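tokens incoming
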């Protein structure tokens, strides 16, 4: 049988993530210096682990409601009230308001549901370039057109850059701040301008804030009273009336080191979240049940020491790479997106391949962009490993 002819176009149009290809290489190397993966390297807080274990022992191992565990939804709604000033009701709650929330199978699950709920074949969405690897492919899976907004060289998705891209086919603008791959954090003014633009043109603003607590002090605008030690990134969700225009997506994996738990949440207009819940019924069904109990404890965890350690690594990366190339200072997350010096006369992919020969793993910028001029480095690794990798990369760029 010629099974190839049976494959749907949406699958043929996708290609393997370049990140996964690099990880495959790492598995076959004896002692790689891995600066490629966006995987937090700290252990999960004991209280979070204990809460998840308790969920299993308490026999919370069956399905939850599609929208999520009731206690986790209530805690999420309360947290959004504290953080954003939103009056959020759990999805499906009787007599709920117009803003609601839902637990998803990771932020990737939330993004998948949002794209499917909002995009028709031929419709458009605006994404930044560079972008998180899945953004354009999710649009393709929905039969829609991802419109990439060039944000080089500073990687800021500003209203001035977005406005010329808007058409009558645009359904939403997707903001990722702090961003992957560059770690760039928009200012409060930039967030406000982007929100105003979306309001004026009647399109949704999706704010992907998976790295919301990995924000370094110079980028913060406010602090929550209950978490005075943790900087808060500027967010369009904190602006007045944002809940009418913003679909907020956040997760537990990156911030709390539980990436394998596949847990996130979405909050925003009930009309949108309700459609996402309907789609979740027929796809993910629900997020992992016992692990949702663990996620409740995440809201009380102190991540300040971890963020401080990552800031120390960030400063080393910017200092070392800044000696030999262009690298915007990451305001959040744990990535640096540096340019391959023009005098080297090689693409980002070629640079990464040369680094692999010296046991250093990074990710080509082409995995995140229509350009192949940059490289993404993750500093979610031990300081000694980071120092060794930087020594090699700097030496390569000095040659």
């Amino acid at each position: 049988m010629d099974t190839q002819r049976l494959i749907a176009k949406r699958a043929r149009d996708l290609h393997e993530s370049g990140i996964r290809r690099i990880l495959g290489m790492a598995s076959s190397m004896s002692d790689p210096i891995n600066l490629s993966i966006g995987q937090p390297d700290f252990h999960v807080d004991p209280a979070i682990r204990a809460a998840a274990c308790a969920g299993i022992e308490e026999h919370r191992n069956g399905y939850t409601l599609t929208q999520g565990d009731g206690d986790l939804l209530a805690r999420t709604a309360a947290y959004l009230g504290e953080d954003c000033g939103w009056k959020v009701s759990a999805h499906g709650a009787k007599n709920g308001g117009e803003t609601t929330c839902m637990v998803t199978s990771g932020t990737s699950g939330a993004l998948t549901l949002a794209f499917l709920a909002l995009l028709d074949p031929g419709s458009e969405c605006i994404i930044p370039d560079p972008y998180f690897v899945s953004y354009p492919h999710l649009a393709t899976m929905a039969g829609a057109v991802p419109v990439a907004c060039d944000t080089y060289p500073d990687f800021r998705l500003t209203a001035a850059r977005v406005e010329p891209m808007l058409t009558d086919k645009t359904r939403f603008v997707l903001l990722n701040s702090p961003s992957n791959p560059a770690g760039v954090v928009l200012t409060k003014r930039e967030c406000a301008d982007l929100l105003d633009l979306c309001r004026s043109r009647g399109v949704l603003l999706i704010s992907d804030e998976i790295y919301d607590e990995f924000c370094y002090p110079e980028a913060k605008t406010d602090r929550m009273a209950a978490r005075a030690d943790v900087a808060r990134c500027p967010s369009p969700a904190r602006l007045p009336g944002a809940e009418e225009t913003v679909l907020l997506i956040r997760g537990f994996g990156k911030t709390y080191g539980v990436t394998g738990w596949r847990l996130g949440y979405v909050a925003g207009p009930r009309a949108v979240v309700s459609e996402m819940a309907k789609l979740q019924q027929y796809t993910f069904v629900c997020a992992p049940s016992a692990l949702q109990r663990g996620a409740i404890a995440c809201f009380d965890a102190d991540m300040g020491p971890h963020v401080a350690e990552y800031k120390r690594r960030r400063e080393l990366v910017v200092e070392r790479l800044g000696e030999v190339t262009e690298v915007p200072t990451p305001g959040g997350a744990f990535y640096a997106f540096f340019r391959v010096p023009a005098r080297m006369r090689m693409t980002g992919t070629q640079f990464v391949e040369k680094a692999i020969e010296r046991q250093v793993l990074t990710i080509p910028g082409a995995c995140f962009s229509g350009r192949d001029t940059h490289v993404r480095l993750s500093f979610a690794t031990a300081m000694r490993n980071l120092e060794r990798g930087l020594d090699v990369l700097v030496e390569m760029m000095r040659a």
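note: The domain at 3-44+303-398 is CATH 3.90.1150.10 (Aspartate Aminotransferase, domain 1).
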